[in-house]
Amino acid sequence: MRRWAGEGATLRGDRRVTGLAFAAVLQFLLMAAALGAYAYGRHLADGRPERAYEHARAVWGLERSLFLPDESSLQKGALRWDGWVRAANEYYVRVHFPAITAFMVWVYFWRRRAWPRVRAVILGSAAAALLVHFAYPLAPPRMLPGHGFVDLMTAYGPSAYATEPGQGITNQFAAMPSLHVGWALLIAWGVIRYARGRWRWLAAAHPVVTLLVVVLTANHYWLDGVAGSAIVVAALWATSRIPALDDRDRGRAGASARRDSVGA
């Protein structure tokens, strides 16, 4: 009898592991398909360079009317020492997708209760950004003539883009919004919210560094970062209003409620 009970427990354990593995693979395929569709959608939105340059001039003028720092002046000042450029380009090219992927893996396996909300925020922000790419093509600062920008990825490498606009699968006219900044903010929010220990506050540096990198390398305007952050903040707010995406630690909440009732 004991042997049969042990075999039954082992079988149930094996089925549970198989079920968890199947669920993880399913989630991986879902997110890979969704982000792949987002990347391909960005490519399809690449087709109106005249509008992209017109919008670039409009964004530049709006930033100056808002007294935002001049990106070209900042880049010129930073280039007095160009030792940072290669590292900044590497950060721009190599960190964005690996960081959001590592964040998703961490949330899914170690903060499972938060996964439905994080997934919804990532998918919702990607969908909103894609709509903006179609509605508002925008040439990045490095492609804006007459303002003295240096295309640092071309000059120093590595580059995330083809030599000429329209080549390759990456849309160079999709500067608005910057999900580099938006998803960096999401990562910082998630780590600070769900992790434990004082070290988690270091994550707040990620969106700050990302914003500086995308601006100083002339890949984005300030307002691109603002727009990307606003989309993520709006998605976080929207998901906080949906009970099915409640990501609070109910165990701790329940324990606190029981302590309060005992104290009363």
TrEMBL record:
Signal peptide: none annotated. It holds the Pfam family PAP2_3. It is a multi-pass membrane protein. It is found in: Membrane. Keywords: Membrane, Transmembrane, Transmembrane helix. Its main location: membrane. Residues 58-237 form the Inositolphosphotransferase Aur1/Ipt1 domain. One of its GO terms (cellular component) is membrane. The chain crosses the membrane at residues 20-40, 91-109, 121-139, 173-192, 199-216, 222-240. PANTHER family: PA-PHOSPHATASE RELATED-FAMILY PROTEIN DDB_G0268928, PTHR31310. This is Inositol phosphorylceramide synthase. The lineage of its organism: Bacteria, Bacillati, Actinomycetota, Actinomycetes, Streptosporangiales.
